[in-house]
Amino acid sequence: MSAPDPVSVPAFLYGTAWKEDRTPALTELALRTGFRGIDTANQRRHYFEGGVGQALAASYRAGVVSRADLFLQTKFTYINGQDHRLPYDPAADLATQVAQSMASSLEHLGTDHVDSYVLHGPASGAGWTEADAEVWAAMVRERDAGRTRLLGVSNVSWRHLTQMAMTGIEAPAFVQNRCFAVRGWDRDVRGFCQERGIVYQGFSLLTANREVLGDELIAGIAARIGATPAQVVFAFARAVGMLPLTGTSDAEHMRQDLGSLALTLAPDEVEAIESLMG
Ligand SMILES: NC(=O)c1ccc[n+]([C@@H]2O[C@H](COP(=O)([O-])OP(=O)(O)OC[C@H]3O[C@@H](n4cnc5c(N)ncnc54)[C@H](OP(=O)(O)O)[C@@H]3O)[C@@H](O)[C@H]2O)c1
Atom 20 of ligand 1 has which residue's CA nearest to it? Predict the structure, then answer.
């Protein structure tokens, strides 16, 4: 049997949360602008996954991209993170809910597999639970059946990850977390990921760190390299090994966010930003 193709992961992910009716048009614009990684979730409360699927179909028809060009990531969300618009039977066991949610995601996205399937958040903030283990095992089965290529977890602490690892189950390929500069840009979790070859996906890099954007250190670096403060934050994120997400609704910001990939910060600048707030 030949080895599966290595999964190519783009350097930036376009996030589709909170766009409601604008989801199809904005996702299509993001693809036209050059994004090749799309993050969504089967959680109608915050995402319109069917709208992402509409954008994909329109982009394929227009010849902008093909499925093979894309990295599609979606999520399984527990019932406590959902509203009444559930993608599964709430009376079913968790493993069945995962299978139903995945089937619904594939239908929404018009594909037979996604590239990454993420547990949106563990059942408890306090630690990795039996419920999480059951869901994770069901996600592994989805992967083994070819419906996703990689697996991830989101909104996790170092404690969650350590407990998950101690149970001896398969490690995630991705961790997706809100990244606060005041916590050393999630230093503990990033360290855990780096030691194990897990890719850390950072979101809310701008919205969780508004004071950073106004800091004179960032302003100085931005002036030196002819970039915006937001671009400096994204360039920093890449420099420390993160895979950043942006959910911009603005065409110029889409170009700027992708443009940040071409920026290089000096090592001392990266260090200074890393310890700017914590
Ligand atoms: N796993 C989870 O629980 C979870 C939670 C939250 C988010 N996410 C994912 O992460 C994605 C991104 O969410 P987010 O919280 O990082 O961001 P977001 O809510 O999409 O907001 C990004 C903000 O940054 C601004 N922005 C972006 N690029 C900019 C630029 N170049 N210059 C100035 N402002 C800029 C945007 O304004 P403009 O629109 O005006 O550009 C917007 O206000 C979501 O869509 C979702 O896919 C996951």
Answer: 247
